[in-house]
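Per your request, structure below.
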C-alpha cells in the first residue's frame, strides 16, 4: 500500500510530501521546511514510522519547494534529484531568498538529473516522471499508475492552476501540460498539489474554471 503524508510548511503554505509503502522506503518531495520546528516535525514523523529515505526530489525549484533541500540532503545523506532544466532556477534561489524572509536559506546543488523516460522504483511501486512545464521550464509530476496517484507540484490545483508570471513561466505551455498530460490520466486519479487540498483529475476536468475547453 502507498502512504502519502503531507506537511504544510513555510510562509508560502507549501505542501511537502513523504511517500512510502510497507517496505518503509520513502521519498521526500519538495521539502519546504524552513524553521527548526518544521524540520523537527518532519524528522519526528520519519522516526515514528521508521522510514528509510531513498530519494529527495523537487518537482520544480522555486524557493518554497526547495528551502529544505540542504537539511534533508545532509540529515539523511540522500542525493537531490531534479529535472535538468531546473538547474538554473535552483541556482537563483539564494539571490532572492531574503525577499521571502528566508535569508537563512542554505543553497545546495542537484546530484541527479532526472530522465523523463526513467521510472523511479520505490519499495514495491514504480513512479513515472511526467514532464509538465509551464509554471517553470523543467517542472515534473510523479505518477503511480497502479494506485492512480499523482504529485503535481504547482501545475494543477483544486479549482486553479499554477501561476505563469515568474521566470520560466508560460501560460500556453502550462495549459498544454494540463490538457495533454495530466488530463490524459483517469478521472479517479488523485492529485496531490504543491499548495492547497488534494483533488482528482475528474473534478478538475469538470469544474476547474481555468481548464474549460
Amino acid at each position: 500500500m502507498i502512504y502519502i503524508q503531507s506537511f504544510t510548511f513555510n510562509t508560502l503554505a507549501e505542501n511537502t510530501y513523504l511517500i512510502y509503502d510497507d517496505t518503509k522506503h520513502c521519498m521526500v518531495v519538495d521539502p519546504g521546511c524552513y524553521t527548526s520546528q518544521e524540520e523537527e516535525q518532519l524528522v519526528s514523523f520519519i522516526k515514528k514510522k521508521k522510514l528509510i529515505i531513498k530519494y529527495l526530489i523537487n518537482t520544480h525549484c522555486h524557493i518554497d519547494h526547495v528551502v529544505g533541500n540542504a537539511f534533508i540532503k545532509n540529515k539523511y545523506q540522500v542525493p537531490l534529484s531534479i529535472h535538468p532544466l531546473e538547474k538554473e532556477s535552483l541556482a537563483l534561489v539564494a539571490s532572492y531568498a531574503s525577499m521571502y524572509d528566508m535569508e537563512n536559506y542554505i543553497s545546495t546543488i542537484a546530484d541527479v538529473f532526472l530522465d523523463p523516460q526513467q521510472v523511479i522504483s520505490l519499495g514495491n511501486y514504480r513512479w513515472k516522471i511526467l514532464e509538465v512545464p509551464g509554471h517553470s521550464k523543467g517542472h515534473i509530476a510523479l505518477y503511480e499508475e497502479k494506485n492512480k496517484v499523482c504529485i503535481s507540484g504547482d501545475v494543477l490545483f483544486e479549482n486553479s492552476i499554477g501561476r505563469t508570471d515568474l521566470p520560466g513561466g508560460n501560460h500556453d505551455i502550462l495549459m498544454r501540460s494540463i490538457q495533454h498530460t495530466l488530463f490524459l490520466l483517469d478521472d479517479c486519479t488523485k492529485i496531490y498539489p504543491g499548495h492547497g487540498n488534494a483533488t482528482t483529475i475528474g473534478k478538475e476536468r469538470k469544474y476547474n474554471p481555468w481548464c474549460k475547453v
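The mean pLDDT is 97.

Regards,
D.
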